[in-house]
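Good morning C.,

I know you're traveling, so I'll keep this short. The sequence:
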Amino acid sequence: MSTTDFRPSRRHVLMSATALAAGPLAFGVGAPVQAAAPLLGAWQPRHWRYKIGAFEMTTITDSEVFLDGPFPLIGGNAPEEDVRRLMRDNLLPEARYQPGFSPTLVNTGRELVLFDTGNGENGFVARPQGGWLAAGLGPAGFKAEDVDVVVLSHGHPDHIGGLMEGGKPLFPNARYAIGQIEYDFWAPEGKHTGEIENMAAIFRANTRAIADRFTFVKPGDDVVAGIRAVEAYGHTPGHLNFLIESEGQAIYFWGDCAHHQVASLARPDWHCVFDIDKELGAVTRKRVYDRLATDRLAVIGYHMPFPSVGYVERQGSAYRWLPHSYQLNL
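The tokens, ready to paste straight into the viewer:
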């Protein structure tokens, strides 16, 4: 038999194509074609757990909201096109972004310490788009009454909004730590006007019932053993960062030293609309980034994309956010 006997004729090719187009029934298969699996919708984890030395760390997301920006929320002192170009260069949308809102729990083995409380019932991001911390505690393995210390980096509504729930303190057994400068800025009646007063009113509403349980810390003070306050003024007058150390490992909670993972770090001189002292905020950002890049410290960035943990890399006079991959899983 010659090799040409194996070549399909034009008739065979046409018959095969017709059968394939007709589907399984053309080959005598009686079962109907199954539909595709149903679409399930977008989903991302709501909490993430890791360790720093003997401390067990848990980050819980408080919102997955998208915002318009980053311009003019970030870069209001720069040409809009410069901000948009930076987004394009980093393969990000030019006019929409998704910040993290990431309260963090630290179990030291002696105390359960919560850093910031999210939006709650009256923060920047209204429910149901934000204010998820209260509902997220249980799935993450916690009860609100187990929290021993609530640390507030500053008094903005997306950090103190979760202090109260249903008119009662959400964390009934906790003491509360905040900078004295910060508390004195937000707490007094009649001190502010306009938008600052609107935020101050939320602060007062959320702290009035727990005012006698506040302790006041200043830079250099220990909140508990292994957690030390660091000055980071500018975003608000008494904004604090915290260095968390255990068994030779460390991580740095920088609160609101960045609001966008690219724009804030690439251009720390760009103003943030949320900074009360915009020039001091820019100076503080650069100082904090420079220290973290030099010391190669892991960082908890409250508004970085969830799970809001990463590192800072120096790039000339600028900086870059490097999201955590597996370094803290060892």
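Safe travels,
E.
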